[in-house]
């Protein structure tokens, strides 16, 4: 896959407000927040879209979700609630082709999404 802005954030070539990091996952604040809390959890190893994920990526995908859930618990808003979203390809609203889990919280979410 081609290099994206998120790979540059992983390599610390451009700044980001990083809130969590482990060997495989990085999380940082979204530049264009859609809620009081809006974070992006990304794999350090680039994977363009959810559509590109294979069976061998199952553990990594689980780690992204668990990292988001653990963050929500740590920060104290898990009980109140939050939303996780993975946009995939054009109709899914994906704009950065490095797979990421949005974690949104701090306001009531609406359903269905627009
Ligand atoms: P998506 O539409 O699902 O591909 O979400 C991409 C998100 O990435 C979008 O909410 C805005 C955010 N974003 C784009 N460029 C940057 C950046 O350079 N830094 C940060 N922190 N977020 C970015």
Largest sheet: 5 strands, antiparallel
Our estimate of the beta-strand percent is 15-25%
Radius of gyration, whole Å: 14 Å
Q: Could you report the average pLDDT, rounded to the nearest whole number? A: 97
Order of helices and strands: HEEEHEHE
How many domain units? 1
Distance between the termini: 29 Å
Largest beta sheet: what is the strand line-up? Answer: 1-2-3-5-4
Helix tally equals: 3
CATH H-level superfamily: HIT-like
Under CATH at level 1, the class stands as Alpha Beta
Give me the count of strands: 5
Molecules bound to protein? 2'-deoxyguanosine-5'-monophosphate
Structural shape: globular
Flag low-confidence runs.
none
Judged by helices, strands and strand pairing, the structural class is: alpha+beta
CATH architecture classification name = 2-Layer Sandwich
The quaternary state of the protein chains shown equals single chain
Q: Determine the fraction of residues in helical runs and give it as a percent range.
A: 10-25%
């Amino acid at each position: 896959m081609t290099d994206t802005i998120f790979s540059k954030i992983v390599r610390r070539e451009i700044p980001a407000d990083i809130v969590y990091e482990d060997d495989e996952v990085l999380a940082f604040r979204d530049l264009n927040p859609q809620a009081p809390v809006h974070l992006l959890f990304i794999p350090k190893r680039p994977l363009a879209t959810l559509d590109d994920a294979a069976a061998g990526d199952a553990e990594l995908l689980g780690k992204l979700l668990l990292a988001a859930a653990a963050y929500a618990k740590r920060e104290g808003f898990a009980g109140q609630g939050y939303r996780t979203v993975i946009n995939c390809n054009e109709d899914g609203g994906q704009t950065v082709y490095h797979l990421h889990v949005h974690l949104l919280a701090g306001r009531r979410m609406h359903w269905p999404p627009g």
